[in-house]
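Input (structure):
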């Protein structure tokens, strides 16, 4: 016997349709409908509401073998297939994160194909693999943020069994898995939740209707989200969740959903006896998101930090459009690196208002902030999805890498960044509905035109070629100059793992020196100096030490008190007197 159940306070009658046969369900006072039926373990089923003939998928569907518009399928992971019993988890602090999109990471675009590339990530030195959303969405390929059945895994990637194999393979290699989840909206096609109950609220954000987090009957909606988060951790052995755009969660309740998630995940972590991590994407620049609950915060473990990206990218690339307008100077880069947020109660010209709040660097470690030079957003939301490797020199790419990987923050890479991939990562969709596909393409072009871009260069998200162009080319890493950059990334990550000065997360211990006119900046990390020349010409930097690692070989004066650094290059110097003695310098 199997108990079918669904929360559906809106309809007056609910029937469960199982393998072609309808069965009546009984309603409880709390709006849950239930029916016990003898079925096959892989039965197809759905729910029929009131007089409608349409069979709707289960809001908590474990599997959607034929897409989000058709019936669900019972599914249970085979626990005997897990081989990670010895896995005790991995904390985020001290790790390097690697973000990837399953559909474009490999030519095949599946979990199983991604497994074949995991050894590359182990050799690179990363600790966490972060998957862009894999919840079921309409169509074959998509970034994943149009998910509508949050409990199911997209079938084209390999479904729930494929995700299980992927997580298990990661754990066998010592890699933790983070999963991107979206709780701030539902996709435009296949969302039937409002037919069951008040899952949605009045108002909308940039992507869709608001989710009902604090309105009437919101308790079950919140439970729907919390149970989903726990499912990934408990059933799929995932180690971390990246919570998409938490600033778009409209929650006026006394206990914010994020705090509730923090409480529930901590409880599960205690039971599983392994660390479970919550990472927010937030543009609020509000340290309360990552402040412990005991100190009055929401209790999340970490957040993405776009300010660090903007400060590094604008300084290195020279771009100043849009939200880069307040960045670009070495002063802005220094401020951001030493304070965590650039906008921490300052005026944002892009927003036209005061933005952010200061971080107490004595209490919040920098490893609670993820730093990066590339993400799916920062590449894919450019007009043509062009990667930095197509408009920056290899030396500039290396400088950006050094600034992130030698910083006090938790570094994150985006797939292919480590070898300077030239393939774009463009915005792609595959909506089967022609009207929706057309509206998506036109909206994309209109958005870029409003920001001054030529709309004619914006690729059509619905074109198959847009998706295919976005796949990584795995022949690149072995070919110069990609191989040289890849070696540099490996060396920087290895140095980070071997020297505690670099992984030190306390911003009070970080020193910054720079010369705006000469275009050099140096991060002081204990006895190490990470010196970067952002200019095109060689420059003499009054920072001493013995070179340990570099892009283009620097020239150190006889006393090791200054270094001449070629243009678009970095060097890591060791000012430890013992290091000087070992190399014969005084």
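Output (sequence):
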């Amino acid at each position: 016997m199997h108990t079918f159940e669904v929360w559906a306070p809106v309809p007056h009658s609910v029937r469960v349709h199982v393998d072609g046969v309808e069965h009546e369900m009984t309603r409880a006072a709390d709006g849950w409908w239930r029916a016990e039926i003898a079925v096959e373990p892989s039965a197809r089923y759905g729910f029929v509401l009131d007089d409608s003939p349409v069979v709707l998928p289960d809001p908590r569907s474990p599997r959607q073998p034929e897409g989000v518009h058709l019936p669900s399928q019972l599914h249970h992971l085979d626990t005997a297939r897990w081989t990670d019993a010895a896995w005790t988890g991995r904390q985020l602090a001290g790790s390097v994160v690697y973000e990837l999109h399953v559909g474009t990471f490999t030519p095949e675009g599946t979990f199983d194909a991604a497994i074949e590339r995991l050894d590359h990530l182990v050799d690179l030195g990363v600790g966490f693999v972060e998957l862009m959303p894999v919840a079921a969405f309409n169509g074959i390929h998509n970034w994943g943020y149009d998910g509508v059945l949050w409990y199911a895994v997209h079938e084209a990637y390999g479904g729930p069994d494929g995700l299980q194999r992927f997580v298990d393979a990661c754990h066998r290699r010592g890699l933790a898995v983070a999963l991107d989840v979206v709780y701030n909206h539902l996709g435009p096609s296949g969302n039937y939740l409002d037919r069951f109950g008040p899952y949605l609220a009045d108002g909308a954000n940039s992507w869709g209707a608001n989710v009902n987090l604090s309105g009437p009957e919101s308790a079950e909606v919140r439970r729907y989200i919390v149970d989903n988060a726990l499912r990934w951790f408990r059933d799929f052995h995932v180690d971390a969740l990246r919570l998409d755009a938490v600033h778009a969660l409209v929650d006026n309740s006394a206990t914010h959903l994020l705090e509730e998630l923090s409480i529930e995940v901590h409880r599960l972590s205690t039971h599983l006896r392994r660390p479970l991590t919550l990472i927010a994407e937030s543009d609020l620049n509000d340290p309360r998101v990552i402040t412990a609950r005991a100190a009055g915060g929401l209790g999340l473990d970490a957040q993405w930090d776009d300010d660090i990206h903007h400060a590094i990218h604008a300084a290195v690339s020279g771009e100043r459009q849009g939200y880069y307008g307040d960045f670009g100077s070495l002063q802005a880069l220094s401020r951001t690196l030493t304070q965590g947020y650039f906008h921490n109660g300052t005026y944002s010209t892009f927003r036209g208002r005061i933005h952010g709040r200061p971080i107490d660097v004595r209490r919040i470690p920098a490893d609670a902030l993820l730093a990066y030079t590339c993400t799916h957003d920062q590449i894919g939301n450019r007009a043509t999805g062009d990667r930095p490797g197509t408009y920056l020199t290899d030396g500039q790419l290396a400088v950006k890498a050094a600034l992130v990987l030698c910083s006090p923050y938790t570094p994150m890479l985006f797939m292919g960044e480590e070898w300077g991939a030239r393939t774009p990562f463009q915005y792609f969709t595959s909506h089967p509905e022609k009207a929706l596909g057309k509206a998506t393409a036109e909206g994309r072009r209109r958005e870029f035109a409003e920001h001054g871009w030529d709309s004619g260069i914006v690729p059509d998200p619905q074109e198959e070629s847009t998706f295919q162009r976005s796949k990584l080319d795995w022949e690149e890493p072995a070919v110069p100059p990609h191989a040289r950059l890849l070696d540099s990334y490996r060396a920087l990550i290895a140095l980070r793992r071997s020297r505690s000065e670099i992984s030190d997360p306390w911003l009070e211990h970080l020193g910054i020196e720079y010369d705006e006119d000469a275009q050099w900046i140096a991060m002081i990390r204990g006895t190490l100096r990470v010196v970067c020349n952002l200019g095109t010409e060689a420059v003499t930097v009054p920072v001493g030490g013995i070179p340990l690692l570099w892009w283009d070989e620097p020239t150190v004066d006889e006393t090791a008190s200054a270094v001449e650094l070629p243009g678009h290059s970095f060097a890591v110097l060791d000012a430890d007197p013992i290091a000087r003695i070992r190399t014969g310098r005084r």
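Notes: The chain has a mean pLDDT of 96. The CA atoms of residues 57 and 81 lie 27 Å apart.
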